[in-house]
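Forum: Protein Structure Q&A
Topic: Joint prediction for protein chains with partners

I've read a bunch of threads here and the consensus seems to be that you should model interacting components together rather than docking separate models afterwards. I'd like to see that in practice. Below is the full input, 192 residues plus whatever partners are listed. Could one of the regulars post the assembled result?
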Amino acid sequence: MYGLIGQLRTTEEGRAAVVAALVEGARGMPGNVAYLVAEDAEDPASVWVTEVWESEAAHRASLDLPSVRDAIARARPHLTGRGTRVVTRPVASLDG
Amino acid sequence: MYGLIGQLRTTEEGRAAVVAALVEGARGMPGNVAYLVAEDAEDPASVWVTEVWESEAAHRASLDLPSVRDAIARARPHLTGRGTRVVTRPVASLDG
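Posted by a regular:
Agreed with the consensus. Here's the joint model:
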């Protein structure tokens, strides 16, 4: 499996739009196992995404999906940069 | 909802034991929505955990569960410190 944990830096006023774009764009992506979007509770200009994919190839292919391209285009005006970005090897995904 | 994204620093040889302890200790925790454990693909001495909880109180209560206490005790000899630790407000958890 292939995973990512990424921090997106946003404008404060644009964070909600970035979150909405990410959530809407992430539905039904082939090979995606989990996609968690969260606001940073202490930094109002930061969003965190934890992703789990069946493979790195599945993740790469997702970047060509129209839904994902649209989401990136919608989010871009509100993005100010990237923070932490970690490639991971997911081991377990427990649902409570 | 309440969330955490945390990086645990481990010894290289002890990382597998930490991962095993985390996964086993995290089963059936009341109020837990998601618990994702992943190895850092580039740093052999690092583990990342993404957590989603119904509330901060649910997370705090979990630290008193025997299963969690046991897991922490099993992991502790292999831990060398904490890295990134972010409190989040989870927005969406999509299962592919």
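The CA atoms of residues 21 and 74 of chain B lie 6 Å apart.
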